[in-house]
Amino acid sequence: MSISQLLLSTIIIFIIYKTAVSFRRGNLSRNFTSIWLLLWISVLFFIFEQNTLIRVAHFLGISRGVDLVIYLAVILTFYLIYKIFSALNRINRKVTEIIREIAVHNPKKGKVKQKKS
Known about the structure:
79% helix, 117 residues, 2 domains
């Protein structure tokens, strides 16, 4: 086992541990936790089985295993950015609906006093 494998596997095991703790505390959903753990366990597997990664990359027409990892990381990053953007838009719409509802039911409380010049 090389130093890089030891270091990377230690970091990944820590990430897996923190994910499990967050799930137990109720901060993560079951689906998200399952997908996240599957991702990190796969990364851990490919750290030690690099020949398998190379074979998968060649099967997909990619010359190096590390290129496959980079492509997948970029795709995953853009997908997660999309999901975050989508969630923020949903939250923004909900906040707008709540503020409108409050303004309709309490029209005088929401008014700002203007100073006379």
